[in-house]
Amino acid sequence: SRLEETVKKTVTDNPVVVYSKSWCSYSTEVKQLFKRLGVQPLVIELDQLGPQGPQLQKVLERLTGQHTVPNVFIGAKHIGGCTDTVKLHRKGELEPLLLEASGK
Amino acid sequence: SRLEETVKKTVTDNPVVVYSKSWCSYSTEVKQLFKRLGVQPLVIELDQLGPQGPQLQKVLERLTGQHTVPNVFIGAKHIGGCTDTVKLHRKGELEPLLLEASGK
Ligand SMILES: N[C@@H](CCC(=O)N[C@@H](CS)C(=O)NCC(=O)O)C(=O)O
Ligand SMILES: N[C@@H](CCC(=O)N[C@@H](CS)C(=O)NCC(=O)O)C(=O)O
Ligand code: FES
């Protein structure tokens, strides 16, 4: 669908993308982690897009199997949510992904 | 108001009360902390009460100044949210409050 193509293009054109909800603390936490790492993700607040928000969330669920926020992509690869991203960081596996994605 | 009286009675009659939203990870985290401490809070899921949910949230905001979830009370005392409760636990100040409240 058109919206699926939009999401695929967005995650391909931007090294780091976070689909978020502005009032959700887990979304805030993952945005703050990227900020601390000096990374400027593209942040899309699903609750500020009107009717497109829920439609986008359905597309994300079809593409990734994940209906929750935050929904994180690095280098067009689906990473998962907040706990997934924090776990990768703790294991030292997040930075290499960020370097690879920004070097593209 | 009638609803304010209900909240005051609820937090007086139950040693630990958590006003929560069922899909919110911060609400889940604070519920899990109490579970780990062997405490059975009274949990009120604001998103599962129909129109009363938002009304209760307004009353909680009037009574506590806090419009966010989770909203935690121990021994009828307003504690705050998830980060506040975790901070008290880290400082060893949560258990004494729980003991005092359950001993009432
Ligand atoms: N472990 C996941 C949890 C994600 C999660 O449960 N997100 C909640 C908001 S904090 C959500 O989207 N809930 C909507 C739902 O469960 O339908 C993560 O770290 O991102
Ligand atoms: N630091 C607070 C954060 C509370 C918070 O921002 N809660 C969010 C959900 S995770 C909320 O209620 N947002 C609604 C809003 O901001 O209007 C806590 O630990 O409880
Ligand atoms: S809505 Fe509460 S942590 Fe996301």
Give me the Rg of chain A, rounded.
Answer: 13 Å
The average pLDDT of chain A is: 97
List unreliable stretches of 5+ residues of chain A.
none
Bound molecules: glutathione, FE2/S2 (inorganic) cluster
Give me the count of strands of chain A. Answer: 4
Strand content of chain A: 15-25%
How is the biggest beta sheet of chain A arranged?
Answer: 4 strands, mixed
Taken from the alpha-carbon principal axes, the silhouette of chain A is globular
Strand arrangement within the widest β-sheet of chain A reads: 2-1-3-4
Q: Which two chains share the most extensive interface?
A: A-B, 4 and 4 residues
Give the N-to-C terminal Cα separation of chain A: 27 Å
H and E string of chain A:
HEHEHEEHH
Quaternary state reads: homodimer
Number of helices of chain A: 5
> Share of helix among residues of chain A?
40-55%
- The assigned structural class of chain A equals alpha+beta
Protein name (chains A, B): Glutaredoxin-C5, chloroplastic
GO molecular function (chains A, B): glutathione disulfide oxidoreductase activity
Domain Glutaredoxin (chains A, B): 16-79
Organism (chains A, B): Heracleum sosnowskyi
